[in-house]
Inverse folding.
């Protein structure tokens, strides 16, 4: 009977609009919730198949399907905390529940969120107040990230930042900018030994010293021109001041390039030398063949020293390229340190952690040293709207979303990571209030249908024979 189908259609309309009202209420309630993705209700008609001979029409009604608009990105909101994290563009942050710590990880444990306000707990674990722990790939001691699996979270670890963390930055490069006085290679020169000390930092943050001494070579006779030749001896305090390098060097006196290293063969490594009655012999502490000075590379202008304080990290000392005045020179004037620079720093205490656009967590120490400690990848799926929504603005994989892939931030389809920011709610209150009015009217109209059908049925029961 078509009048009964009208009643059912009216009831279905009430249910559908009640569902719509629920999504509107949820959206308005979460208009200030960071990372909230608005819900929506789409109506679909239900049609009862009619008979082929044009029988009476029966109303099928309506059905409401709800969907979470996860693919909509909220506007970033600036904050004052370095570990407030948002994403500009596509991608999600990988997190797990705090209760999952210590459990075996698997794809089913992965949760995703668009934003979070992270802080360390007493154990140093970086998490939100709601117990979402940020995941990342740990960096090696030199701050690099090894090659990691991109389709699994097996190699992701909870980000742990110890408040009392200390770190040392071993020295790996020294630029030996020194000027040797050209007058000291004349016949009547004093022949004095010129010495410079260069501090370097070992693997354990210890302060060590390389002592570099320059011995001038004097002409044999008074009428001979200046030799422009020197013997350089390098000693390492971490190796009981043993000699780790001996070199003879010659400087150019040409009109062009005068005072610079003469040519590719001007610096020659020696294993032993006797100067002023004292014999110096190389005693290496590292992997270089015993009693051998490392070779000089004219292409880079450097020698690779193996010092006892940096047994695993060799120090490249730049002497200068032939014809270049960027490091050692020999011109008239005083013996001077024209530009001795180096990297590295002593042991420092952690002062802060920030995240950059690429998702790299960088720790800063009170010595001015910074290094990468983790990389936070971004999770991407083919269909964001197919993700299963959970509490606290988190989502998990579903058959409709497709498999996830871990991207470097800013690479592939993903956007950049933003520190000092949170993602705002995607709710537009003005739009929701408009939808509320429309839904209220639609609900009232469906209620009117039920009232009308009720009156018609009442008329039917009042019929008399």
């Amino acid at each position: 009977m078509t009048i009964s189908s009208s009643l059912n259609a009216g009831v279905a309309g009430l249910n559908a609009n009640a569902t719509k009202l629920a999504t509107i209420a949820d959206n308005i309630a979460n208009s200030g919730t960071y990372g909230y993705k608005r819900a929506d209700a789409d109506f679909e008609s239900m049609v009862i198949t009619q008979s082929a001979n044009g029988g009476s029409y029966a109303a099928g009604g309506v059905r409401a399907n709800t969907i979470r608009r996860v693919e909509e990105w909220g506007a970033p909101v600036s904050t004052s905390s370095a570990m407030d994290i948002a994403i500009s563009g596509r991608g999600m942050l990988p997190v797990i529940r705090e209760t999952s710590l210590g459990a075996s990880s698997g794809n089913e444990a992965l949760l995703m969120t668009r934003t979070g306000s992270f802080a360390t707990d007493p154990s140093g674990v970086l998490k939100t107040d709601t117990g979402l722990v940020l995941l990342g790939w740990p960096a090696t001691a030199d701050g690099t990230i090894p090659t990691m699996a991109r389709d699994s979270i097996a190699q992701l670890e909870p980000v742990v930042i110890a408040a009392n963390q200390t770190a040392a930055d071993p020295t790996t490069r020294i630029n030996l900018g020194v000027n040797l006085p050209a007058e000291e290679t004349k016949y009547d020169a004093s022949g004095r030994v010129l010495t410079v000390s260069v501090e370097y930092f070992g693997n354990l943050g210890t302060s060590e010293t390389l002592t570099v001494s320059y011995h001038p070579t004097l002409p044999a006779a008074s009428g001979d021109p200046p030799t422009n030749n020197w013997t350089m001896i390098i000693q390492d305090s971490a190796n009981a001041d043993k000699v780790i390098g001996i070199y003879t060097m010659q400087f150019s006196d040409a009109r062009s390039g005068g005072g610079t290293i003469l040519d590719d063969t001007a610096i020659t490594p020696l294993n032993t030398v006797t100067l002023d009655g004292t014999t110096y012999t190389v005693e290496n502490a590292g992997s270089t063949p015993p009693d051998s000075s490392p070779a000089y590379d004219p292409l880079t202008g450097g020698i690779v020293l193996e010092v006892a304080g940096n047994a695993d990290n060799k120090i490249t000392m730049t002497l200068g390229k032939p014809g270049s005045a960027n490091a050692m020179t020999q011109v008239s004037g005083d013996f001077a340190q024209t530009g001795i620079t180096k990297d590295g720093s002593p042991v420092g205490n952690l002062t802060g952690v920030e995240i950059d656009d690429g998702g790299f967590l960088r720790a800063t120490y009170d010595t001015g040293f910074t290094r990468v400690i983790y990389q936070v990848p971004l999770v991407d799926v083919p269909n964001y709207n197919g993700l299963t929504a959970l509490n606290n603005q988190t989502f998990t994989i579903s058959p409709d979303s497709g498999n996830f892939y871990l991207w470097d931030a800013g690479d592939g389809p993903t956007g950049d990571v933003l520190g000092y920011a949170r993602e705002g709610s995607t709710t537009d209150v003005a739009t929701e209030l408009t939808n509320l009015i429309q839904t209220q009217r639609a609900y009232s109209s469906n209620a009117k249908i039920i009232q009308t059908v009720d009156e018609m049925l009442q008329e039917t029961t009042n019929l008399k024979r």
